[in-house]
Design a protein that fits this description.
The complex is a heterodimer of chains A (about 290) and B (about 475).
Chain A: E1 27-31, E2 37-42, H1 46-65, H2 68-84, H3 86-97, H4 101-119, H5 125-129, E3 131-132, E4 139-147, E5 150-154, H6 162-173, E6 177-181, H7 188-198, E7 207-210, H8 214-223, E8 229-231, H9 237-247, E9 253-255, H10 269-272, E10 275-283, E11 287-288, E12 291-292
Parallel strand pairs in A: 5-6, 5-8, 6-7, 8-9
Antiparallel strand pairs in A: 1-2, 3-4, 4-10, 11-12
Helix pairs in contact in A: 1-8, 2-4, 3-4, 4-6, 8-9
Chain B: E1 22-23, E2 25-27, E3 30-32, E4 39-43, E5 50-55, H1 59-78, H2 81-97, H3 99-110, H4 114-135, E6 153-157, H5 163-176, E7 180-184, H6 191-203, E8 210-212, H7 217-225, E9 231-235, H8 238-248, E10 254-258, E11 264-267, H9 273-285, E12 297-301, H10 305-316, H11 337-352, E13 356-358, E14 374-377, H12 384-387, E15 394-400, H13 403-411, E16 418-422, H14 426-435, E17 440-443, E18 462-463
Parallel strand pairs in B: 1-5, 6-7, 6-9, 7-8, 9-10, 11-12, 11-16, 12-15, 14-15, 16-17
Antiparallel strand pairs in B: 2-3, 4-5, 10-18, 13-14
Classes of the chains: A alpha/beta (about 290), B alpha/beta (about 475).
């Protein structure tokens, strides 16, 4: 090896398609599994959380209004970009989770495959969970799923990349926008994922990534009146309860933490947790004795 | 009420229903006194006549009922789905057989017109049981996995506006999926739920599968908080819904909430005016407007405001208010004194804030709780009568110029339960329906319900769906 000193990356937040530092100016030390220094990550404040919600709300109309096919293409593009950065993520995940190179490679491969899996879901979920309802009357009646809105996602603490993507992809596949709180201990794969998203075709604001103390960032998100739902995957039992109580204030949809094996192929429940069902009625008219009413 | 047509009284006979002077709690297949010996009276809102004295469940009774439901759960959930189905089919049929009796009972206890209980509530109640009966042995085909499991004991709290229909919405899917239930009816309308207990007896339903606990809010709170309840389903106010969400936080209880609304009924300039007027009237005066999905905000395109309001006022002048048992009655009584006070106070606030109040000439009966059909014009989005759920026969009229403005105004609410669209232009219906943040959108119709059609809200109107395949999810471990 040469004596060349490597160029280190300054890890930053990802909000509204931009890469700001925390408005608080704070950072915290991120180490690898053995305690060696890796980076100083931004220590997000509640103001950062609020800014991220504003960005997510602003992006919601266009993202939820895009065709499902288009969202599928965009998500597939993310998988393509991830593939190109595979070596970087293998290194980051190995450092973050204390995995061997080969174990880490397997995790990264599974993560990329998960993006592909969800990319394919965008234009199928409506047919699986929606449909026509045979009402007893002369009415056309159709139920369709729609995204809930802005979803706060507390990424899993241990599975810093596969877990992260497993909770984030289902949220945005269906047209929601997300404010993601990265794993507190291992935020670097999430912050690097933001760089991938920025260079894919994902519109700014659709995904916003914050690093820092989960409890500090999640608390203002759980009580935020313009957040529609929260995934508590990364919260411990005590924090999850507090956040669920705060979330009741505007009746956020809450996905409670549960044991998940992120290596397994997921079901559709992480998508349906953040979908609303809209049912539209219209008269069909009917042929009466005196002729047509349509 | 002043009307072009005079109608002779045509009261439905009360003799089809035999109301006992007192009722107990229904626990483990038996009627029993409340442990604390407390009772309360239920009155007919149209006359203030006391109909019966009802045992009032306390925390001890809640515990007893939950234990009964838990005791029954093992066997009930282990029954082949086809057997559970047959119990529910039996219940559906018995409801059909006794539907006139139940319609009269519901009208007496609730105050709503017999026309509605007879033609809307009761047929929908029977249909709901019939629909979910058929699901009981087909759950593996419902899209929730090959063998979805019931949750256990369901604690259910229902409102007074559609007492028996809300019971059906709660109990039918719960039983079809193999759960057992403890249900608390509203304190002003406990009777039809207690009659339902008798239907369970006639159907031979195993003891403890359905338990009925009349009581007030504290009974509901004890039920929701009971540690051995696995599932909580609530229909009622948004404030109570939030309290329940806080109560179940940090537990494994599955929760569905069907809460308040402030539905926008949007009328475009090309709408068929006569049909739209019928839809507006149905939207806000059906069940005296005591409907969570009521079209309580009329959004009318500015260019046709005058014409539409003139037709609407003319139509309101022909509504007949009075004896709910009379088959010609359109508008019945308000359910309770408490609700009447709430409506009155919000309407007074509407006037104080500068909106213009109008009602047709309308004579109110001397006893009972009554409120004349009321319409407000000059309403702005900031007015309380445009923001708060009034839950009464009160319509707030706002205007718009463009479809975008209509959508923005319709969505400018904490709620998201229902909306209506009136236009002859199909692409406009679809575009506007797409943009409305509401769980049910009625286009060129309003207030239609069906057991196959999922119902429930966006935003602070709650979460989860009742009805249809979607309605099974709330009671399955998925």
């Amino acid at each position: 090896m040469s004596d060349r000193l490597t160029v280190l990356k300054t890890y930053k937040l990802y909000v509204g398609g931009k890469f700001p530092r925390s408005e608080s100016g704070r950072v915290y030390e991120v180490t690898d599994a053995k305690g060696r220094w890796l980076a100083n990550a931004p220590l997000s404040s509640r103001k950062d959380a609020r800014d991220a919600v504003v960005a997510a709300r602003k992006a919601f109309g266009a993202w939820s209004g895009a065709t499902a096919y288009n969202r599928g293409q965009v998500l597939y593009r993310v998988a393509e970009m991830l593939e190109g950065r595979r070596d970087q993520f293998v290194r980051e995940v190995a450092d973050a989770e204390g995995l061997s190179k080969s174990r880490s490679a397997a995790v990264v491969d599974a993560t990329i495959d998960r993006w592909v899996w969800y990319a394919g879901w965008t234009d199928k979920i409506a047919q699986v969970v929606g449909g026509g309802n045979p009402v007893a009357g002369p009415f056309f009646n159709l139920s369709s799923p729609e995204p809930t809105g802005v979803v706060a996602v507390l990424a899993p603490q241990e599975s810093s990349f596969l877990g992260l993507v497993s909770v984030l992809a289902p949220v945005i596949a269906t047209g929601n926008t997300a404010v993601v709180v990265a794993s507190e201990k291992s935020p670097l794969p999430a912050l690097s994922l933001a760089e991938v998203l920025a260079t894919s075709d994902v519109p700014g604001g659709v995904v916003n990534v914050l690093s820092g103390r989960t409890a500090e960032i999640a608390t203002p998100l759980a009580s935020h009146q313009d957040v529609n739902a929260i995934d508590l995957a990364g919260a411990d039992e005590e924090l999850a309860k507090d956040l669920e109580i705060a979330a009741a204030d505007n009746l956020k949809r809450v996905l409670r933490p549960q044991p998940v094996d992120y290596a397994e192929t997921p079901g559709i429940d992480r998508m349906t947790a953040f979908l609303e069902t809209k049912t539209v009625w219209h008269p069909t008219g009917s042929l009466g004795a005196s002729g047509s009413s349509y | 009420m002043a009307s072009a047509f005079e109608y002779a009284p045509a009261p439905e006979s009360r003799s089809v229903v035999d109301i006992a002077p007192s009722y107990g709690l229904f626990i483990d297949g038996e009627f029993t006194e409340a442990a604390g010996g407390k009772v309360f009276k239920t009155v007919s809102p149209s006359t203030e006549e006391v109909l019966s004295e009802i045992a009032q469940a306390g925390a001890e009774d809640v515990d007893r009922a939950v234990r009964a439901a838990r005791g029954a759960f093992g066997k009930w959930s282990a029954l082949p789905g086809s057997e559970r189905a047959k119990y529910l089919f039996r219940i559906a049929r018995i409801i059909q057989e006794r539907s006139r009796e139940l319609a009269v009972l519901e009208t007496l206890d609730n105050g709503k017109p017999i026309k509605e209980t007879r033609d809307a509530d009761l047929p929908l109640v029977a249909a709901h049981f019939f629909y979910y009966a058929g699901w009981a042995d087909k759950l593996g085909h419902a899209g929730f996995g090959a063998d979805p499991q019931p949750l256990g004991v369901a604690g259910q709290v229902i409102p007074w506006n559609f007492p028996l229909l809300m019971l059906a919405w709660k109990i039918a899917p719960a039983l079809a999926t193999g759960n057992t239930v403890v249900l608390k009816p509203a304190e002003t309308t406990p009777l039809s739920a207690l009659f339902f207990a008798d239907i369970c007896r006639q159907a031979g339903l195993p003891k403890g599968v359905v338990n009925i606990l009349p009581g007030y809010g504290d009974t509901g709170a004890a039920l929701v908080a009971h540690p051995d309840v696995n599932k909580v389903a609530f229909t009622g106010s948004t404030a109570v819904g939030k309290e329940i969400a806080r109560t179940v936080a940090g537990t494994r209880k599955k929760l569905t909430l069907e809460l308040g609304g402030k539905g926008a009924n949007i009328v475009f300039d090309d709408a068929p005016v006569d049909q739209a007027v019928e839809g507006i009237v149905n939207g806000i005066f059906f069940n005296q407007g005591q409907v969570c999905c009521a079209g309580s905000r009329l959004l009318v395109q500015e260019s046709i405001q005058e014409e539409l309001l003139e037709s609407l006022k003319r139509r309101l002048s022909t509504l007949r208010l009075g004896d709910p048992l009379d088959k010609n009655t359109d508008i019945g009584a308000i359910n309770s004194e408490e609700q009447l006070t709430r409506i009155t106070s919000l309407v007074e606030q509407g006037e104080a804030e500068g909106a213009e109040r109008w009602s047709p000439a309308c004579e109110l009966p001397e006893s009972g709780y009554w409120f004349a059909p009321t319409l407000f014009t000059n309403v702005t989005q900031a007015h309380r009568i445009a923001r708060d759920e009034i839950f009464g026969p009160v319509l707030s009229v706002l205007t718009f110029r463009t479809p975008d403005e209509a959508v923005a105004k319709a969505n400018n609410t904490q709620y998201g339960l229902s909306a209506g669209i009136w236009t002859e232009k199909g692409s406009r219906i679809l575009a506007v329906a797409n943009k409305l943040r509401a769980g049910v959108v009625w286009s060129n119709t309003f207030n239609k319900f069906d057991p196959t059609s999922p119902f429930g809200g966006y935003k602070e109107s709650g979460f989860g769906r009742e009805g249809g395949r979607h309605g099974l999810e709330a009671y399955l471990d998925v």
